[in-house]
Every structure is written in structure tokens, then in C-alpha cells.
């Protein structure tokens, strides 16, 4: 099946994806993606909905002859997606920091309890 390779390329370019990460998330190799972008030939139709979902577009948006002005609209959507991914990354880092602080607090409490136990044992 044929897809509009130029539109696919533009959608990827205006998204938060690099070609490498897009290919990985789509479940194809980077070389395969390069071939699709060069020839417009999608040998396995099952990837069309995967591409569309990753890019936040419809499958029809990726087909030849469907020239619409959705790039700008989708680019805004993908900018929001990139922002959300950044927020999630920040939250994950904060969670990891809090977990480290919590583990340190537990270590300090245990050390304090041991000191108290030693003090009570010598009395």
C-alpha cells in the first residue's frame, strides 16, 4: 500500500519524535522507516494505524490524495504532547528524588533507634 511519504515526514518533523524513536515506538527498524519515507511504500498495512496513533492523526491523513491543512493543527497537538511528556519526565524525576529522601529518612530513623536501644541497654 502507498502512503504519502512527504506528509508522514512532515508529521514526524512537527512532532516530538525523532525518526529513531518514532520507528522504535512503531515497532519497525529505522532503516524500514527510511525506506517508507523514501518510497512511500508501506508493505504491512497494520502499521498505518500505528503511525497515525503515534502522530495524533487519522489513517486517512497519511494516505495519498488527502491533502488537508492538518499539519498545523496536528503540530499544535504534538507540541502539547511534548509538553506533557516533559511534565511526566519532571514528575518521574521528582518521585525518584522523594523515594531517595524517604529511604534516607528510614536509614536515619533506624540508626537513631539503634542509638536509643544502646543507651537504654547501658542504663
UniProtKB/TrEMBL annotation:
Protein name according to UniProt: Uncharacterized protein
Molecular function terms from GO: DNA binding
Q: Which residues form a coiled coil?
A: 81-118
What lineage does the source organism belong to?
Bacteria, Pseudomonadati, Bacteroidota, Cytophagia, Cytophagales
Which keywords fit this entry according to its UniProt record?
A: Coiled coil
